Amino acid sequence: MTTAEQTPAQAREPEAPERSRWAAVAAVALGTFLLVTAEQLPIGLLTSVGSALTVSEGAAGLMVTVPSIVAAFAALLVPMLVGSLNRRILLLGLMALMTVANLGSALAPNFAVLVGSRVLVGIAIGGFWAVAGGLAVRLVVPEDVPRATAVIFGGVGAANVFGVPLGTLVGDLTDWRIAFSSLSVLALATLITLLAVLPGLTAAAAVRPKLLWTQFRSRGVRIGIIATVLIVFGHFAAYTFVSPALQQLSGIDERYIGPLLFAFGVAGMIGNFVAGSALSRSTHRTVLTIAVALAVAMPLFQLLGGTTVGGIVLLIAWGLSYGGASVGLQTWMIKAAPRAVEAASSLWVAVFNLSIGLGALVGGVIVDTLTLPGVLWLGGVCALLAAVAIWTARTDEALR
């Protein structure tokens, strides 16, 4: 695939390691746990931050929007700007930036400074993800890559299940500044852990704009990007409004929404590791199954989610399906661009983050102007289109 479309001078990934470094994989997973927690924690602190700094909850939402958008651009720009800098040094520097940025959030005297600190958080998130997303191929032997990628992305599910709720609880019981301070301490602990166990990661070829652009010459990369946009866009268009959907469509009391979202997160973690195991047997079949499952689960809320039991069952099925999406799509990109993993991962992280923001934005417009079930149908249609795109790569040997 890409091996025939890129010369070694354009992109050559370093040789696979002779042994698996699972301690380093676990440290990177801790980093992904921190990144997602830092990105989403302000969702639970909007009211308290808005009250303390005299801004509306809508304005306080910039604490989430700004880093997501910045991360999308940082995923492309950071690897290009640092050139051939050793990736170990880059990851350590980005984690140091995350430590300082969250401390800045905790000490911010006004909302403008707080948003400025969140810009730095976005840079750290985008830059770290661009490298960490495809790092499994640098840390473990080839046969362990799917499992190691699942471990790394397990930090995402753990952040949704434990990190964000616990951080919000800390903010509620103490003060929102303490919650951000806790993030800074966790970032420092992650920095020390990475320093202790992460090996040197030489960049064999710098990521350049031309290298990023040439990735689209690979049919596998193009399909992976299209599938990512459709799946992530559709998911967040619908999931952003899952709470009112459960209440209005399934008749579930508001008191049970929190525990159900926790169950969704647990299901997502299970789906992540189930997908990681299945990917070692067939990347194409696994990612296609995820897309089809999402295409079925979301629209069925309108048809079968009219009862409490139906709503809960479909929510868990949705969580299991989407839980495998990140590890599945990232593994797809690794297989599609084996000699330019970092460049392909940078593109993937950028479109992933943009799709999150655009999905939530379009979902809000649909809910306000049309109907709540409209976002569930949109999510299903997007997943179905992704499944069709994925199916077209069924003859690609590299993705089997």
UniProtKB/TrEMBL annotation:
The domain of life is: Bacteria
What membrane topology is annotated for this entry? Multi-pass membrane protein
Q: Which InterPro entries match?
A: MFS (IPR011701), MFS_dom (IPR020846), MFS_Efflux_Transporters (IPR050189), MFS_trans_sf (IPR036259)
Subcellular location as annotated: Cell membrane
Keyword terms = Cell membrane, Membrane, Transmembrane, Transmembrane helix
Residues folding into a coiled coil are none
Entry's transmembrane regions: 21-38, 58-82, 89-108, 120-141, 148-171, 183-207, 219-241, 256-275, 287-305, 311-334, 346-366, 372-393
Pfam families cross-referenced by the UniProt entry: MFS_1
What organism does the UniProt record list as the source? Nocardia fusca
- State where it is primarily located: membrane
Q: Which residue intervals define the domain Major facilitator superfamily (MFS) profile in the entry?
A: 24-398
Q: What is this protein called?
A: MFS transporter
